[in-house]
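Could you join me in thinking about how sequence relates to backbone shape in a protein? We need material for that, and I hope you will provide a protein of your own picking. Label the sequence line and the structure token line clearly, so we can match residues to local backbone shapes. Would you write everything just below, so we can both look at the same thing?
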Amino acid sequence: MKRHYGETKAARQADYCARFSDLLLTRAPQLSGRIEWPAVLHYFHSGAPVADAVDQYCMARNII
């Protein structure tokens, strides 16, 4: 991942979470307001790409 010098870890984390929620809610809109954020942060800290993280999240919770 290309990083900008002035970008903070918090900004990267917020961007990851936003992209995760956007992709997840396009796939499963019924989860609006019900995302398990500790799981999302686990995927972020593991370095999983957003698309793979959403796939894993959905498979672990039997969504779609």
Observations:
- Residues 9-29+36-60 form one domain.
- Residues 9-27 form the longest helix (19 residues).
- The two ends are 29 Å apart (CA to CA).
